[in-house]
Structure formats: structure tokens, C-alpha cells
Amino acid sequence: MPTITRDQVKVPMDVMPEARENYIENYMKATRGTGRLMLFACDQKIEHLNKDFYGEGIDPSDLNPEHLFEIGSQGTIGVLAGQRGLIAQYAADYPEINYIVKMNSKTNLVKGDQDDPYSPQLYDLEAVLAMREAGVNIVGLGYTIYLGSEYESTMMAEAGELIAEAHAQGLLVVLWIYPRGKAVPDEKDPDLIAGAAGVALCLGADFVKVNPPKATDGHTSAQNLKIASTAAGRTGLVCAGGSKADASVFLSDLYDQIHVGGACGNATGRNIHMRSLDEAVRLTKAISAITLADYTAEDALAVFNGEKDFSL
After folding, report:
1. Catalytic residue among 102, 209, 226, 285
2. 6-304: what fold?
3. Structure pTM?
4. Is 143 a catalytic residue?
């Protein structure tokens, strides 16, 4: 099982001296003392509206937003990422969860052939800091950038300012960066994914969430991901989980992303919360077995199937 000590955390120089210990504490909590991130992404209620929470192939329990927090509490995760209002409504009942506040969001109603994507910032840092002062266990912020959109400069400027402000307060920042817009013919082009990773580093992000690159001639997706994880430098790269998939396939891909592609974790939402509470909790444990404890994909599948125990 990978482990790090507090003195091994590489603290960026834009973290103020008085916030240094707070940053280290947040990093250790978010990564469960491993340096790897298991991010439970719960921001889709704005991003995809209700289609990810109700319908064919989705467990009925997912319609109730508290399902997300029950999973986060009973499962094994590093952080739960969601919008400020969502977290504010439930955090009092789930104080043990580490929270990432998603600072910007948009719906999927306006399609790319109508307008390039822009995800506006929904609130300022002060509103988040007030929640932290009220006792919510906030360890960091999240922000989405659509690289290649005609609005990328606005999103990059907002993200850059947020990262500087967040670091000064000892908070982590995870950037979601997706190449998207009329100027982007292939959102999963390996060079673009690596470029997105480099942008996250230059903006100062602690982690960047990207889509796994497509496979190309002679190279698997995980092999192409290695280019991006190297380009990310000291910004930890994690892959989006995507739509719901068979658990064995998902866990095998995750293992390759970490051990072949150099990813330092995962960021999974729909693959987890579309399931029943029991199944979702078991999947968080299986994902964390790979991400946080270096289990093989086969052993992690045994955790998911209830044949093998896992705890941190």
C-alpha cells in the first residue's frame, strides 16, 4: 500500500506560510495518506440534469440526492466533489466526508453546434470559506475548463485566480479539463489530453481530471495516458470514470491507468452512484483497493463481489 508522510507533501510556494500546515492536512485527508486521489464526482445534477439519476439501468435510490452522501459516508473514498449548495444541504448530517466544492457548472442543454461551452463560476471563495468556518469539512475546490472553447480564456483566468486564492487559504484545487468546442475535432486525442495536463500544471492545480485518451495504432489508451501523466509534472492526473460500465472492465481499466498510464488516482461518479447503496459502497471499496492500496484488478473485483475484505 503506498503511503506518504506529512513531510513528503510537496507544498506549492503560493501556499502562505500560515496556511502550510492546513494545506498538508487537507492533502493527507484527501489522499488518505497515500498521495493518490479517489474522487467521488457528484456534480452531475447540474452537468447532466436528471438523466444520470433516474431511468433505465439506474437504481431507484439514485433519484434521492442523499444517496450520494450515504455512499460517501459508508463507502471508501478520498473526497466527495459537488456544488456548494448540494454540500451545504447535507454536510451537517455527514461531517466525516472530505468535500471538494465545485466552483463552476453548466447544463448540457446548449449543444456544441449551437455555441462553444462555457462553465461560469457560480460563487466566490468567501462563500466557501464561510462554510468551512461553520464546520463543513472542505479540503479543496474544483473547477472545469473547456480547453479549445472560444471562452477558454475566461475559464482559465477564473481558475488561475481561484487556485492562487485557494492555496493562500491552504485548500487544494482539482481542475476538470476537457478539450471541447468547434475548434476541437477529437476530444480524446492523446496530444490534447497531454496538453490539458500541462495547462493544469501551469495554472497551479494540485490534481487534474481528464478523459482517458483514445487508443492509437500500436498504443493502448493507458500507454497514451502515460504521456499526459508525465506532462502533468507535480500536478496529479486522474481519469474520469465515464458512463456506467461492467465492474470488471472498469476495474481493469483503472488498474492500467494507474500502473501503465501513471495516473495517481481516479475521479468516478456515474459508475458508482447509479447503483444501489450496497453495490455502490462495494464498488467504492474495490476502486479504493486499486487506487489506495495497489490491489490487482482481480483482487479488487473480489472485493466488489464480496469475496474479499478491504479497509483502510
Report:
1. 209
2. TIM Barrel (3.20.20)
3. 0.97
4. no
